[in-house]
Amino acid sequence: MAKRNKPRGISNQAGMMEQLQKVQQQIEAAQGQLADETVTASVGGGAIKITMTGDQHCTAVEIDPEMLKDADAEMMQDLVLSAINAALEQSRQLQADKLGPLTGAMTGLPF
Fold first, then answer.
1. Does residue 106 lie within any of the structural domains?
2. Number of domains in the chain
3. In what helix (H) or strand (E) does residue 52 lie, and over which residues does it extend?
4. Does residue 93 fall inside a structural domain?
5. Average pLDDT per 10 consecutive residues for the chain, totaling 111 residues
6. pLDDT value at position 42?
7. 3-state secondary structure 72-110
8. Angle, helices 73-106/8-36, rounded to nearest 10 degrees
9. DSSP 14
10. Within a domain: 5
11. Sign of the four-CA dihedral 18, 23, 24, 25
């Protein structure tokens, strides 16, 4: 009786699944690290600072008390908005730096 070999496709699929699981574990680990890492954006010469985690949760807002003495509400709103957007951009860049190589590895896999 002749030996039956597994079709090549099955072997390739198993290897591909193993690769996907490994990449998924690496992505989950990187996402966990992002939750622990922070970025801080500062605007107005340091008058307002926003600290945000790598998974985009705001953890601190600092306003220089001197800024409150003479600032009008509209200027403060603009500065806070600018600081939040800068912190978000830094957080997104941190995500791209951490996750980009991992998600890029998936583009070479045939689906």
1. no
2. 1
3. strand 48-53
4. yes
5. 57 80 84 88 94 92 88 88 95 88 63 52
6. 95
7. CHHHHHHHHHHHHHHHHHHHHHHHHHHHHHHHHHHCCCC
8. 160
9. H
10. no
11. positive
Block residue for tokens 């509400």? 73
How is residue 7 annotated by DSSP? P
Q: Which of 32, 29, 48 is nearest to 40 (CA)?
A: 48
81-87 own/partner pairs: CB under 8 Å, 24+ apart: 82/43, 82/48, 83/41, 83/42, 83/43, 83/44, 83/48, 83/49, 83/50, 84/41, 84/50, 84/58, 86/41, 86/42, 86/43, 86/50, 87/39, 87/40, 87/41, 87/50, 87/51, 87/52, 87/58
Q: Is residue 111 part of a domain?
A: no
Q: Pick from 47, 105, 104, 56: which is nearest to 76 by CA?
A: 47
Specify whether the CB–CB gap between 64 and 79 falls below 8 A: no
Domain residues for the domain of 30 are 10-101
